[in-house]
Amino acid sequence: MSVTKIIQPRLHAASSGLFANWMPNACVAVGDFGVIEDHRFVRHGALSEYGEIDSGVEPGKARNSFDYTDRIDLAVSAVAAAGAGAGARAKVSVNMADRGAFLYHLANAGFVRAANTRLFHEQLAQILLAGDLTFPDDGVVVTEVLNAKRATVIIADSRDASLELETGFQPLGDAFLAGAQGSVRAGAPRGSVLQFVGQSDINALLRLIRPRIMPPPGGPSGPPAQASALEKPIRWFRDLFRDRPLKVSDLVITSNPDATVPHVTIRLAQSDDAYMLTLRELTVEEMLQGDDDVLTHDGPDQELDVEEVRIVDYGQRTATG
Questions:
Q1: d(CA 297, CA 299)
Q2: Is 115 exposed, middle or buried (0-12, 13-18, 19+ CB in 10 A)?
Q3: Is the pLDDT of residue 142 over 90?
């Protein structure tokens, strides 16, 4: 069983709907698309390669510290100074109770998202209909990224794992292990530990949507209430234009990002028949699909109910700018 299957529902609950970027230092941006494999986002490309798309606005000074931990115990002890004038140093023991325990310390972090959600949705619909991109049937799109200028991410891939860290500063405050106050160095771990210590400029967490299309009556998937994947309905839609090329300019595309389920309606001018392209956020259940293994926690026979996930620390958020 992949450790990603353990951490994703817990991080999703802690971060109000975000998923872990696996690996945290992988290059991912708003407007990227891909698929879910092994309970993680796998990038296929960027929508900007196929048309105009809002690639997100940097948060500027609107940055905070984020601290997400689950089944982690931190023990801090002082380290004797090496000589006169030496700065404060400390040892931090990171003890992980079980496989999938994690620590995310994100400093000087902010959300990168489209400046205009309505325009982003309309641009997405135009790219999907233009025909240059073959979008995966189960594809997803990145709509938001939590970027951290400094970050430490530690994840246990075995039971009773631990890691010793040494800081060049007094370890106090929110997300102190991110290293924004000074150097953080890692020693040899006990057990299997995934670690990104004192990293710079990482996109740690992602928000994902999965486009689904609902055709008008008589379309390839039955009644309008039945949503389907994209390839077959879009191909059927283009077949309506056998006598002339499909042009996006022939369509009336209207975004409704504030609906209960954000969507885009697509119709021909002077026609009442409309497609609805739904842009619903990826759910935990969808992220965890894909294999037949049983998600367990604290024992091989105890199944983890996604609805009963509890997070030890739901994250400290302190404005820094």
A1: 6
A2: exposed
A3: yes
The answer to whether the bond into 96 is cis (omega within 30° of 0) is no
Alpha-carbon distance 177 to 198, whole Å? 7
Cα separation, 158 vs 3, in Å, equals 9
Task: Kindly tell me the sign of the dihedral angle through the C-alpha atoms of 288, 290, 293, 294.
Answer: positive
Neighbours of 269 (CB within 10 A): 8
CA 232 to the chain's CA centroid: 27
Torsion of CA 91, 177, 99, 163, to 10 degrees: -20
**What is the average pLDDT across 192-203?**
95
CA dist., res. 193 & res. 7, Å (int): 14
Task: Judge whether 78 and 90 are in contact, CB under 8 Å.
Answer: yes
Mean pLDDT score of the chain, rounded to an integer? 81
Cα→Cα distances 42→45, 202, 268, Å:
9, 16, 34
The rounded distance, in Å, linking the Cα atoms of 252 and 265 is: 8
Q: Helix 117-130 crosses helix 231-239 at what angle (to 10 degrees)?
A: 70
Give me the mean pLDDT over the 218-236 stretch: 53
- At residue 209, the 3 state secondary structure works out as strand
For residue 285 the two structure tokens come to 């259940």
Collapsed DSSP state (helix, strand, coil) of residue 130? helix
Average pLDDT of the segment spanning 144-158: 96
Compute the distance between CA of residue 151 and CA of residue 71 in angstroms, rounded to an integer: 19
Provide the 8-state DSSP code for 86: P
Query: Distance between CA atoms of 175 and 149, rounded to whole angstroms?
Result: 12
Query: How many angstroms separate the CA atoms of 194 and 79, rounded?
Result: 25
Lookup: tokens for 314: 């739901």
Separation between Cα atoms, residue 162 and residue 141, nearest integer Å: 35
Amino acid at 291: D
* Domain limits, the chain: 4-209+282-291+305-319
β-pairing verdict for 140-156 and 193-214: antiparallel
